[in-house]
Amino acid sequence: MTETAARPATATTPEYDPRLTNEDLAPLKKQTWGSYNIFAFWMSDVHSVGGYVTAGSLFMLGLSSWQVLLALLVGIGIVQVFCNLVAKPSQVTGVPYPVICRASFGVLGANVPAIIRGLIAVAWYGIQTYLASAALNVVLLKLFPALMPYADVQQYGFLGLPLLGWGSFAVLWLVQAAVFWTGMETIRRFIDFCGPAVYVVMFVLTGYLIYRAGWGAIDLSISEVRHTGLASIPVMLGAIALVVSYFSGPMLNFGDFSRYGRSFAAVKRGNLLGLPVNFLLFSVLVVVTTSLTLPVFGELITDPVETVARVDSTFAIVLGALTFTIATIGINIVANFISPAFDFSNVSPQKISWRAGGMIAAVGSVLITPWNLYNSPEVIHYTLEVLGAFIGPLFGVLIADYYLVRKQKVVVDDLFTMSPSGRYHYRKGYNPKAIAATAAGAVLAVLPVLVPALAGAAQYTWFIGMAVALAVYTLASRSAR
Fold first, then answer.
1. Is residue 7 part of a domain?
2. Are 49 and 217 in contact (CB under 8 A)?
3. b/e string for 177-197 if b means 16 or more Cβ within 10 A?
4. Are 291 and 57 in contact (CB under 8 A)?
5. Which residue stretches belong to region Disordered (predicted)?
6. For 287-330, how does the pLDDT look when each residue is reduced to its tens digit (9 = 90+)?
7. Which of the 8 DSSP states describes residue 417?
8. Residue 369 CB neighbour total at 10 angstroms
9. Distance (Å) of CA 392 to CA 117, 195, 255
10. Residue closest to 34 by CA, chosen among 330, 260, 251, 315
11. Window from 128-132, 162-166, 220-224, 279-283 with minimum mean pLDDT
12. Are 104 and 473 in contact (CB under 8 A)?
């Protein structure tokens, strides 16, 4: 049972220290999201070009179809359980992820997880915007073939991106900023539309390919079965880890969304529908469409935008590519825009509003020139994998603190006070145990990424970091008591 104390009548009550408070970070006065809104959130997260390629890649690991489906269900089941764990503290207290982290890291120490998560989101925000702009380019080149020279980086290029790419990137950058700027209610309506829209296109695309190839051409094993018996177990474990890793970002800061849930039961229902049920259906649709590209187009195509581009109808190409573009915008806003908005606002609430935090992330996403980051596997590997190794430890500390150390008891008012007598003041606003546990987990998690001899464990960095940080923080906190 969480001790919520007295909720403030307004977001900026005098009792709350201004160094820790603004209207965006304070506890919500009304929580209105139902199960469908959470379901739609996950649909927006899954139904993107990245989600399509990730789901399809599971069926190309050399496993049989039933093994892939089993690994998929186990992986997404783990994600569902962990999302429920992250959801509860924010839903009950009505505060976002960086604020609930104050209970474990300290009222000032919470900036450590906030900045780490914010930086990861900025990098992925730029990459997803670039991927969406590539889908938009498909539409523009289909409608206006004369633009082809401007899509050539050798003829009209700047900082590694052609002029057409700059135009598409700028348009989508502005569209996302505009949707975000209008506030959380508009974002809710936007993601309520995005996920279902992709399902419509996916079912139509599947129907078109079945019409061209026939029902008998469907094959859930789109790669040769190379792993059988005990040899298949490590591959299945790797597939499970891949699913968890794909969702690790939004899973960590899911509290930014669960805080809007009208009840914890509604959030859990939304997670059930949006994760195992939705992801399984979407994955089956992905593998069906992917397998049918071979008999229809003569080659296996794993990119949904490229598949749509092969359709005979210009209208279908435009509609399909635009839908995947919109869906990618949806996941970008929910996974990589809202998170840094809260995270950066938490650093200096009176100077950085939620909107200002989001715009800092948006500007940062351009400065890193994400097209160069995405096109260099070495850079993206060592940058995002090293940062990603911190996600597991941050998750481990949050869960250990709320469930194992505090037994689900949080005093909301103390999350917003700089008084040394506050429960979450620790040492000058920082909890050394949480920071030490995060560092220990991150160091051990990042070793497989940096040390070639340990490369086989690189896919399990999230689990390593989470387990180490959870154990270290729990033991340190209980021994101190």
1. no
2. no
3. bebbeeebeebbebbbebbeb
4. no
5. 1-20
6. 888 888 888 888 888 777 778 778 877 777 787 777 777 777 77
7. -
8. 15
9. 11, 27, 16
10. 260
11. 220-224
12. yes
- In one-letter notation, the amino acid at residue 17 is D
The values of phi and psi at residue 33, to 5°, are -75, 135
Ordered DSSP codes for 96-143? -HHHHTHHHH-TTTTHHHHHHHHHHHHHHHHHHHHHHHHHHHHHHHHH
Residue 385 CB coordination number (10 Å): 17
* Domain contains 314: yes
Does residue 338 contact residue 187 with C-beta atoms inside 8 Å? yes
Quote the percentage of the chain above a pLDDT of 90.
36
pLDDT tens digit sequence for 29-38: 889 999 999 9
In DSSP terms, 157 is beta-bridged to 162
Count CB-CB contacts under 10 A for residue 365. Answer: 27
pLDDT in tens, 251-290: 999 999 999 999 999 999 999 999 999 988 888 888 888 8
Q: What is the per-residue DSSP string for 132-164?
A: HHHHHHHHHHHH-GGGGGGG-TTTSEETTEEHH
List the one residue out of 446, 442, 451, 447 whose CA is nearest residue 473. Answer: 442
Exposure string for 4-28, b = 16+ CB within 10 A, e = fewer: eeeebeeeeeeebeeebbbebbbbb
How far apart are the C-alpha atoms of 346 and 370, rounded to whole Å?
A: 25
User: Which residues fall within 8 angstroms of residue 396, CB to CB, at 6 or more apart?
Assistant: 437, 441, 465, 466, 467, 468, 469, 470, 471, 473
Q: Which residue has the tokens 């309520």?
A: 192
pLDDT digits (tens, 9 = 90+) for 353-407: 888 888 888 899 888 888 877 666 566 556 656 777 889 999 999 999 999 999 9
Task: Give the Cα separation of 202 and 289 in Å (integer).
Answer: 8
Hey, what are 158's tokens? 């700047």
Q: How far is CA 184 from CA 124, 223, 260, in A?
A: 20, 42, 10
How much is the pLDDT for 9?
Answer: 32
Q: What is the DSSP string of 270-289?
A: HHHIIIIIHHHHHHHHHHHH
420-430 residues labelled b (16+ CB within 10 A) or e (exposed): eebbbbbeebb
Coil vs helix vs strand at 427: strand
Condensed to tens digits (0 to 9), the pLDDT of residues 2-20 reads 444 433 333 446 678 889 9
Specify if 367 maps to a domain: yes
Residues ≥6 apart with Cβ < 8 Å to 259: 28, 31, 90, 91, 93, 94, 95, 96
Domain count, the chain: 1
Contact between 398 and 100 under an 8 Å Cβ cutoff? The reply is: yes
| CATH code assigned at 43 | 1.10.4160.10
Residue 470 lies in a domain: no
